[in-house]
Amino acid sequence: MGYRRRMIVRKILEEEYIRTQEIFGIAFELPMEREFLSEEKLRQIKESPATREEVYYKERWAAFDENGQMMGFLIGFPARVHFDGGEAVCTCIGGVSSLPQYRGHGIIAECFRKHLEDSYEAGHVFSYLYPFSTVFYRQFGYELCSETVEWEFDIRTVPYFEEVKGTAFLNEHGSQKGAVEQVYEAYTRECNLAFVREECDWNQVIRDNPATEHSYTYVWKNERGIPKGVIGYHKEYSQEYPGGLMQVEAFYFADEEGLKGLLNHIRTYRGHYQSVKMSLPRHVALQRVLPEVSGCAFHRRLYFNGMGRVIHAKNALRLARYRGDGIVVIRLTDRFLEENNRVFKVTFENGHCISVEDDIHADIELDIGTFSRWLLGCLDEEEIKDENLRKVFYPKKNYICNGF
Asked: Which domain holds residue 193?
């Protein structure tokens, strides 16, 4: 408890950025290249940020001892995400690090507490992370949310869809950037947690120079020239894939025509690849369009794709989409945000929130982790039996495909 009593937790100052990078390298025993720890690198980040993390390079919360020594930190930059047909701000957690000599004293717990408190004050609704341990992050209110499916299939089994006519266009030097963004938005707008991508989010997704980057982005357009599908991929060779693996990095489609158009394009590589591997949202059922889904050439693996939590419960309930009309009263418990420890009476009509008020008697009591998972729609239809609660908590599409 000694450090916890004496530590100071706050957002970093600009001159403390390099120290956070050093702590990350030491904590994970990763050799950091000198250029990433230089004043020149910091100047480049300030003047020409290449990623969202660099745009928000000071969105880091650190713990200091009584002598001002940094003991640990975390990154928590904001991003707009889709939620129930609207938009909300989600904080993206990364870089969670503490120096070994300070571990076991609540350093990271206090960094999370301060980050969540500051984010609540800012009105941010969600927070998300990719865990090294679900047990560790559950103590801060995070719960397993989005799931993805990794599909792998022999490229020779991809059918040809004769009814779908169109052409694939290679993106070079930004030639298809607008079309890529258009398809991505159509693909993700109904998926909770998907980024509402901005310029800084695309730099690591769209490859502009395939001749040197060994990564290729194509936009499939139908006969009317309407962008309907996007695929980004690179080629890998290994003992398992001597004929080459098409490792898909991005796969978006606006509708069924777009999906089939992309598969027609993939099929043209039959003489150059052995297998295709891609990760897709859980709700996408490729078996509908792939005729051969058996044998050792086909694999379908379900993965947990991170953990999320609600930061601002009242704002989340205001933004949520409901089923029909009703009133539900929820008692919420949250160890890290006192403002969420309340009874919320939610009134909704025609699927939209009318009011969120305080109450005394609740229909159900939920911890913040379960509440977060249910409100985001990461549950099975039969998990909740009460018909009234099922107007609030029901399965929804989820997909987050941005790394941080």
From this structure: 148-304
User: For the chain, how far is it from start to end, CA to CA, in angstroms?
Assistant: 31
The whole-angstrom separation of Cα 75 and Cα 61 is 7
Q: How confident is the model over 151-170, as a mean pLDDT? A: 96
CA-closest candidate to residue 203, choices 42, 46, 52: 52
Tokens of 60: 């880091």
- Find how far residue 208's CA is from the centre of its chain: 23
| Bridge partner residues of 218 (DSSP) | 170, 231
The SS3 assignment for 149 reads: strand
**Integer Cα distance of 197 and 185 in angstroms:** 8
Cβ atoms within 10 A of the Cβ of 150, count? 13
- For 201-244, what is each residue's pLDDT tens digit? 998 788 889 999 999 999 999 999 999 999 999 999 999 999 99
**pTM listed for this prediction:** 0.93
Annotate 163-222 with DSSP letters as a single string: T--EEEEE--TTTTHHHHHHHHHHHHTTSBT-B---HHHHTTTS-S-HHHHS-EEEEEEE
Distance CA 278, CA 295 (A): 18
Report the DSSP beta bridge partners of residue 327: 347
Q: Are 17 and 119 in contact (CB under 8 A)?
A: no
Q: What CATH code is carried by the domain that includes residue 290?
A: 3.40.630.30
Q: Up-side HSE of residue 239: CA atoms within 13 Å toward CB?
A: 0
- Do 319 and 88 touch, CB atoms closer than 8 A? yes
Tell me the one-letter amino acid at 342: R
Q: Are residues 181 and 45 in the same domain?
A: no
H/E run at residue 46:
helix 39-47
Are the beta carbons of 257 and 210 closer than 8 angstroms?
no
Q: Indicate if 116 and 208 belong to the same structural domain.
A: no
Strands 126-129 and 86-98: parallel
**AA letter at 344:** F
